[in-house]
Design goal:
The structure holds two protein chains of two kinds. Chain A has four helices and 20 strands. Chain A is mostly beta strands. In chain A, the strands form three sheets. Chain A has a nine-stranded antiparallel beta sheet with strand order 6-2-3-4-19-18-17-11-15. A five-stranded antiparallel beta sheet of chain A has the order 5-1-7-8-9, with helices on one face. Chain A has a four-stranded antiparallel beta sheet with strand order 14-13-12-16. In chain A, helix 1 runs antiparallel to helix 2. The longest helix of chain A is centred in the middle third of the chain and has 11 residues, at 141-151. The termini of chain A are far apart. Chain B is built from no helices and two strands. Chain B is rod-shaped and about 35 Å long. The chains are: A mainly beta, B mainly beta.
Chain lengths: 262, 14
């Protein structure tokens, strides 16, 4: 038996929004530690690695580890039937071919449940090596979304150049070119508005804006995003999943392979 | 022009 109850159900709705455009289907691997999902997009260029920690749920029961194969578009549609302030419970019997979602209104005066068929997925898992990145850039998630959106006007790719002075995002195309420079924040009152660069070595890498724009769908989960880069390795973009009190409930991490010169 | 690399170039199967 697997059962997980999340009082702040909107977090699960936001998690689904953050992956449903990038992935068609994936397995939720449920264990005593929590619910994990790892999957690549169909072109094997980007990977999502997501974790919802068991202690982030108000109730969590997982008698034995199970893998729930899910059509993510279907799950996303069902979760749209939950109100933003609903409490969401996920339930699956061992060896079941279906998963149940229950939505309770805060006053408990409306309870709905939806059963969804599970899929048999033959998923391949990639080993992601522990990496000490040469640059880690933290910035407001809204700022990163805006940069990716704005530079998409100019081209398909962005060059991210991180030095001790700050970060520069550049794009070019037929109509011209554009650059956005972000300096490290000297003093900010609010931590979530800061730009912080932790750099051991300067790094310049090129990435597809199409994928970065998919990643920014996770911005509603977190006020800050971190970009971790080293030369010649995939970029890691991380949004932490925090509840209203700011306690960590997990993360959504995206990995994106770089583009190289022909 | 740039070439998009695949993730399998960096990460191995487990």
């Amino acid at each position: 038996m697997f059962e997980a109850r999340l009082v702040e159900g909107s977090l699960l709705k936001k998690v689904m929004e953050s992956i449903k455009d990038l992935l068609n289907e994936a397995s939720w691997d449920c264990s005593g530690n929590g619910m994990c999902l790892q999957a690549m997009d169909s072109s094997h260029v980007a990977l999502v690695s997501l974790m919802l920690k068991s202690d982030g749920f108000e109730n969590y029961r997982c008698d034995r580890s199970i893998s729930l194969g899910i059509n993510l578009a279907s799950m996303s549609k069902i979760l749209k039937c939950a109100s933003n302030d609903d409490i969401i419970t996920i339930r699956a019997e061992d060896d079941a071919d279906a998963i149940t979602f229950m939505f309770e209104s805060p006053k408990q005066d409306r309870v709905s449940d939806y059963e969804m068929k599970l899929m048999n997925l033959d998923t391949e898992h990639l080993g992601i090596p522990d990496t000490e990145y040469a640059c880690v850039i933290k910035m407001p998630s809204g700022e990163f979304s805006r940069i990716c959106r704005d530079l998409s006007v100019l081209g398909d790719s962005v060059i991210i150049c991180c030095t001790k002075d700050g970060v520069r995002f550049s794009a070019k195309g037929d109509l011209g070119n554009g650059n956005i420079k972000l300096a490290q924040s000297a003093n900010v009152d609010k931590e979530e508005e800061a730009v912080v660069v932790d750099m051991r070595e300067a790094v310049t890498l090129t990435f597809s804006l199409r994928y970065l724009n998919f990643f920014t769908k996770a911005a509603p989960l977190s006020s800050q995003v971190s970009l971790s880069m080293s030369e010649d390795v995939p970029l890691m973009v991380e949004y932490k999943i925090n509840d209203k009190e700011g306690d960590s409930k997990g993360y959504v991490r995206y990995y994106l392979a770089p583009k190289i010169e022909d | 022009n740039n070439i998009q690399l695949k993730l399998s170039y960096f990460f191995g199967n487990t």
